[in-house]
Amino acid sequence: MRQVDFYVHDDCLSQQSVLLLARELQQHCPAWHIAIYPLLEHEANALGFQILPTIVINGNTVAAGVPKKDWLLERMKECERADRQ
Q: 1, 21, 27, 63: which could join 55 in a potential S-S bond, CB 3.0 to 4.6 Å?
């Protein structure tokens, strides 16, 4: 299954931006499972995330912060192309 996970600080201002980005991605890529995980500081540290938000595609960290939608869509399409090869 193709998956994008967003890890954010719980109640952080960027959480709203991530929610909007996740909704837009789901519209463009309905076959993907997209999840958002609000974390407390100790949870982020336990997972090894130095910066939140962190974006993970299929288990691989691809970005920290809130990237542009087009950039993230391109990473997702790269994963799809790699799956077909």
A: 63
Q: Is 4 helix (H, G, I), strand (E, B) or coil?
A: strand
Phi, then psi, of 30 in degrees rounded to 5: -65, -20
What residues form DSSP beta bridges with 34? 4
What phi and psi values does residue 40 have, to the nearest 5 degrees?
-85, 165
Which stretch of DSSP H or E encloses residue 72? helix 69-84
Peptide bond into 30 cis (omega under 30): no
* DSSP-assigned letters across all residues of 9-60: ETT-THHHHHHHHHHHHHHH-TTSEEEEEEE-HHHHHHHT-SSSSEEEETTE
